[in-house]
Amino acid sequence: MKKVETVCGPVPVTELGFVMPHEHLLIDTYDVRRNSEGVLLELPTMIGEVADYVRAGGRTMVEQTIYGLHPDPEGLRKISEATGAHIIAGTGFYHQQYYPEWLDHWSVAQIAERMHGHITKGFPGTNIKAGIMGELGTHHRGVKPNEKKVLQAAAQVQRETGRPIGTHALFTEVGVEQLNILEEAGADLDITVIGHCDTNRDLNYSRKLLHRGVWIAYDAVGQLDKQRDERRAASIATLISEGWLNRILISCDIAGRTRLTIHGGEGYKFLITKFLPMLRNAGVTEEQIKILTESNPQTFLAGK
Ligand SMILES: [Zn+2]
Questions:
Q1: How many whole angstroms from 25 Cα to the centroid of ligand 1?
Q2: Distance between Cα 256 and ligand 1 center (Å)
Q3: With 8 labelled, which of 75, 122, 242, 251 sits at a CA distance of 20 to 30 A?
Q4: pTM over 0.85
Q5: pLDDT tens for residues 213-261?
Q6: What integer pLDDT is reported at residue 285 of this predicted model?
Q7: Separation of alpha carbons 294 and 19, rounded Å
Q8: What domains sit in the chain, N to C, each tagged with a CATH number?
Q9: Ligand 1 centroid from CA 66, angstroms
Q10: Ligand 1 center to residue 171 CA distance, Å?
């Protein structure tokens, strides 16, 4: 039985149940964004939000808060212990705007060593291991040199550890450029996902990636500034009808206060309570929904 490292230790992938494969629970983007929206730090609040998700039928979250976003693996473990939700932590560097200056001087090998350590030994000072590399981001207008190094390092660590990779690719077709770099560096596309594909409304972008053999994520569900959710649901239904069911992941990528229930938002359960009905309306069957939300992320997280 394949297991995945959660913040509370290894868990058989089949026990992950309903998975949201790209979320944030404890995150702080103030350094770059200079506002409080992306500052989620209150443990009791986040325990309440995850408990709300579990009550709605959720079981697992992949928490892709990494260097630059102020990850807190110990905090994630407390949330997991308090709620019973499985939480899988990411490792890596977010994107150029969030990189430390010292990354300019780090080689691909040094970056790889850091991620490798988080996966095999644990985050410094803890016994909590990362279960995924991501979200590894790039600028939407093109990959910066340091971002390229991070992607190349991830591909190397993936070959060594069999852990999956998730990216952050907004708006444009930059995911193709990410894929080119990852593929050239030897990444296994069976366990690699290009993120935020639903922030580019052109379905042909999704198709272009899928034809290359990589996973795509429609993980900006509920983010109406990117596109309407009915349109997202229709796009997913179209891609399923074209045979791509087994290469799609869905999530909400919640990283802001206004989306939390405590601040009047729909919370993490939005995917279950609001988006799944839209998928059904678009013609996606219950069996297909189960694959999208359970077996797909479980297969992806199992790694190699
Ligand atoms: Zn994210």
A1: 10
A2: 10
A3: 251
A4: yes
A5: 999 999 999 999 999 999 999 999 999 999 999 999 999 999 999 999 9
A6: 98
A7: 6
A8: 3-302 (3.20.20.140)
A9: 9
A10: 14
